[in-house]
Amino acid sequence: MDADRYARWIDRYVHAWNTNDPDDIKGLFRPDGKYLTEPYAAPWTGHDEIVSGWLEAKDEPGDTEFTYDVLVATADLGIVKGRTHYKSTGKAYVNLWEIRLDEDGLCREYVEWWMEVRRP
Quick check: helix, strand or coil at residue 61? Predict the structure, then answer.
């Protein structure tokens, strides 16, 4: 089932998010993969740029609580709604992720759409 394939990838992503280990990060993406931190940003392309960009903007391990739902899952595209809460700051975000996996389950392209949750 395609949704399970995306859920497995997201679980590996969350693991890498909490380790910041370059090998865990590389293991998510094809060598020529693209990572866009927002829809119209210049992508980080390839393992070296993805790892470098990730580590420059890294979150501290264990600082986030993350839940998600796979909204769309096809052979080529997964759309995920995520909710992130930062324990250290109390800030919360809602994300939509576009994930394009290859036949081996590695990401060809990842795009984040995110919004901060503002409470009155």
Answer: coil
